[in-house]
Amino acid sequence: MSGHSKWASIKHKKGAIDAKRGKIFTKLIKELTVAARIGGGDPNGNARLRSAIASAKAENMPKDNIDRAIKKGTGELEGVNYEEVSYEAYGPGGVAILISCLTDNKNRTVADLKHIFDRHGGNLGEPGSVSWIFVKKGLIVFDQNKADEEKIMEIALDAGAEDVRQSGSQFEVVMGTADFEKVKKAFDDAKLPYSLSEVTMIPQNTIRLEGKKAEQMLNLMEALEDNDDINNVYANFDIPDEVIEAVH
Question: What is the four-CA torsion angle of 31, 37, 38, 42, rounded to 10 degrees?
Answer without folding.
Answer: 90
